[in-house]
UniProtKB/TrEMBL annotation:
<feature type="transmembrane region" description="Helical">
    <location>
        <begin position="30"/>
        <end position="59"/>
    </location>
</feature>
<dbReference type="InterPro" id="IPR045584">
    <property type="entry name" value="Pilin-like"/>
</dbReference>
<keyword id="KW-1133">Transmembrane helix</keyword>
<keyword id="KW-0472">Membrane</keyword>
<keyword id="KW-0812">Transmembrane</keyword>
<dbReference type="InterPro" id="IPR027558">
    <property type="entry name" value="Pre_pil_HX9DG_C"/>
</dbReference>
<feature type="region of interest" description="Disordered">
    <location>
        <begin position="1"/>
        <end position="23"/>
    </location>
</feature>
<protein>
    <recommendedName>
        <fullName>DUF1559 domain-containing protein</fullName>
    </recommendedName>
</protein>
<dbReference type="InterPro" id="IPR011453">
    <property type="entry name" value="DUF1559"/>
</dbReference>
<dbReference type="Pfam" id="PF07596">
    <property type="entry name" value="SBP_bac_10"/>
</dbReference>
<feature type="domain" description="DUF1559">
    <location>
        <begin position="60"/>
        <end position="212"/>
    </location>
</feature>
């Protein structure tokens, strides 16, 4: 029987029911990849830090070994210059030059400049006036790199390559010495050594070292230097690395040129 009720509403067709897709309980692939990359980055940073910490001492040691070798080469060049000076004048240079009143004027380092390939610099020096006179100021402020140990950190116009000025040493003062006077043997006698930084002087200065400073070498390394010892230039031109703990008697024997001491061991 038909529904003739005029008040009834026609039924609207219902849209089909769609259930929303179920949410995944895990993370997306992109999120997982991002986390993996972040973890890998952190691990790389951590491992890199460990690697740097392990390699740093080795790198520093290698750099110091290179500086020590460069220093040794500087001293060998100085030794060659001193030998060439002796060949030219039949004597080594004095530790310093003096004027008529005995006042110190210039260092042996200034005298050997022509043999260090610094003839032009040598010709600029007024040897009749002190090293620190106004006429010599420009030269004294010139850096001679062969007089500067690369392990030191002070002004490069300073040097700690010093002679041991001693009455029985090769460098005894204003009087020059010949190799024939070195009866202890050139290989057993010091020409130049690396002093502690506190004893450094301007390379033109006529001041050097004494026996006491040589005996105390290595006691202060506040401005650099070589770990455990220092380079020493022997009269035969060889460079030896002398330990800071070397016997004091041996050190004294190295300074004297005619003391007949035995210095074959104890360095």
């Amino acid at each position: 029987m038909s529904n003739d009720n005029p008040y009834s509403q026609p039924q609207q067709p219902q849209p089909p029911f769609h259930q929303p897709p179920a949410k995944s309980g895990g993370m997306s692939t992109a999120a997982i990849v991002g986390i993996v990359l972040a973890v890998a980055f952190v691990v790389m940073l951590f491992c890199g830090g460990i690697l740097v910490a392990l390699l740093l001492p080795a790198v520093q040691s290698a750099r110091e070994a290179a500086r020590r070798m460069s220093c040794s080469n500087n001293m060998k060049q100085i030794g060659l210059a001193l030998h060439n000076y002796h060949a030219a004048y039949n004597t080594l240079p004095p530790a310093y030059t003096v004027d008529a009143n005995g006042r110190r004027l210039h260092s042996w380092r200034a005298l050997i400049l022509p043999f260090m390939e610094h003839q032009a610099l040598y010709e600029q020096i007024d040897f009749s006036k002190p090293w620190d006179a106004p006429e010599n100021l420009a030269v004294s402020q010139t850096v001679v790199y062969s007089y500067s140990c690369p392990s030191t950190t002070f002004d490069p116009t300073m040097t700690n390559y010093l002679a041991v000025v001693h009455p029985q040493g090769i460098m005894s003062g204003s009087t020059p010495t010949t190799f024939r006077q070195v009866t202890d043997g050139l290989a057993n006698t010091v020409l130049v050594f690396e002093a502690d930084s506190g004893n450094a002087v301007n390379w033109m200065s006529p001041d050097d070292s004494d026996l006491q400073a040589f005996l105390a070498a290595g006691s202060a390394r506040d401005q650099g230097g070589h770990l455990g010892g220092s380079n020493v230039l022997m009269a035969d031109g060889a460079v030896k690395f002398v330990s800071d703990s070397a016997d004091q008697t041996v050190r004294t024997a190295l300074v004297t040129k005619d003391g007949n001491e035995q210095v074959s061991s104890g360095l």
